[in-house]
């Protein structure tokens, strides 16, 4: 059966995944999977602050460049992730952001100057701001700041306008870029996700009302089996985004599985596949044309830090299309079916 990348392309879609450059070099199975399955890539960490500018003024683009070279030689697009985020910030940046508005603006501008000029023509769309919306009070980490924005060093340094400032700074430096706002926890049919969708829509409306150069919304889609998903509310949300003239892409899809005893693995795989299918089918019906999973194989999933959700003949399952032995899972089949509208 053809790869997910090829199946997607045959339907006018683009499928890919988050990649780590060094694994492309060190793990032949990893390399083969990306060669086969991923038509678009996003660096899992190589385009973040702690990787790109570990000390002020010292840029290390080597890890990112190895991904850009690999992708370039295969004519595959690379997404940029992420210009502004509260996580993976070096200590020097956190300190600088506490030294007043002018310093914060200068630090942001210097990073954008270097990174956007370095990647120009190689990265066509960036997550300019990642996860700016505060999670609702009941959820995991409430960080309510003014205007329902997550309380981050950027917000504290520059106020709620930091988002508008970041998008304008990116647009000024490279008008050819597609500028994306990326968020999580906005997919499922829970009170928290419903509230977070409302908050995100309000933020987007206010940004567009003031003319912020914003082109797209990235929906991370770290789905969790312990939460319900219903197509209708998510479809309505996608329709609102399209009404605002925003492109929408799925940026980090994976499915965190509920812990269950090994003997239930088969049933659980089927439920995970069903969830992924329902979600992707709804996204495609809502106009989404680009879908990335957050990695390809359970062997390297970020969820590996989670307690093993289940072991079957020694394999741990982490919600990506390929299992730890690079075999296609029911989730892989579900994505293939959804891409073909089946
Ligand atoms: O920076 C070092 C690098 O110098 C070293 O060579 C390399 C060796 O493996 O590790 C690098 O460090 C870690 C990196 O993952 C690679 O493993 C970083 O310390 C660690 O913080 C980083 O974690 C990433 C995390 O974001 C924070 O950036 C995870 O891989 C990545 O899966 C996770 O992804 C986030 C998205 O960006 C946003 N959405 C949620 C998603 C999951 O948390």
From TrEMBL:
The active site is at 252 (nucleophile). InterPro entries: GH, GH10, GH10_AS, GH10_dom, TAT_signal. Residues 1-338 form the GH10 domain. PROSITE patterns: GH10_1, GH10_2, TAT. It catalyses: Endohydrolysis of (1->4)-beta-D-xylosidic linkages in xylans. The keyword 4Fe-4S does not apply. Its EC number is 3.2.1.8. Keywords: Carbohydrate metabolism, Glycosidase, Hydrolase, Polysaccharide degradation, Signal, Xylan degradation. Belongs to the glycosyl hydrolase 10 (cellulase F) family. This is Beta-xylanase. It comes from Teichococcus aestuarii.
């Amino acid at each position: 059966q053809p790869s997910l990348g090829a199946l997607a392309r045959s339907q006018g879609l683009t499928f890919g995944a988050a990649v780590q450059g060094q694994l492309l070099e060190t793990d032949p199975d990893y390399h083969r999977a990306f060669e086969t399955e991923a038509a678009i890539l996003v660096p899992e960490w190589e385009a973040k602050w702690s990787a790109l500018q570990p000390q002020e003024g010292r840029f290390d683009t080597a890890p990112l460049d190895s991904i850009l070279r690999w992708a370039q030689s295969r004519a595959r697009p690379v997404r940029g992730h992420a210009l502004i985020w509260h996580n993976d910030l070096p200590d020097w940046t956190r300190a600088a952001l506490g030294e007043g508005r002018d310093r914060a603006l200068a630090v942001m501008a210097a990073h954008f100057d270097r990174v956007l000029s370095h990647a120009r023509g190689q990265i066509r769309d960036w997550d300019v701001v990642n996860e700016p919306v505060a999670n609702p009070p009941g959820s995991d980490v409430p960080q309510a700041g003014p205007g329902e924005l997550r309380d981050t060093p950027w917000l504290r340094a520059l106020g709620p306008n930091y988002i508008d400032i970041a998008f304008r700074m990116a647009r000024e430096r490279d008008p050819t870029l597609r500028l994306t706002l990326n968020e999580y926890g906005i997919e499922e049919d829970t009170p928290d996700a419903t509230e977070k969708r409302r908050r995100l829509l309000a933020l987007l409306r206010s940004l567009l009302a003031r003319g912020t150069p914003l082109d797209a919304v990235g929906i991370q889609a770290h789905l969790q089996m312990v939460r319900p998903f219903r197509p209708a509310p998510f479809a309505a949300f996608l329709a609102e985004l399209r009404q605002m003239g925003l492109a929408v892409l799925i940026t980090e899809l994976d499915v965190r599985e509920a812990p269950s005893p090994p003997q239930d693995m088969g049933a659980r795989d089927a439920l995970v596949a069903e969830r992924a299918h329902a979600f992707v089918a709804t996204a495609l019906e809502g106009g989404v044309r680009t879908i990335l999973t957050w990695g390809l194989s359970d062997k390297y999933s970020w969820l590996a830090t989670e307690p093993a959700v289940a072991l079957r003949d020694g394999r741990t399952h982490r919600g990506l299309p390929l299992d730890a032995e690079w075999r296609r899972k029911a989730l892989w089949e579900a994505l293939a079916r959804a891409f073909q509208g089946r």
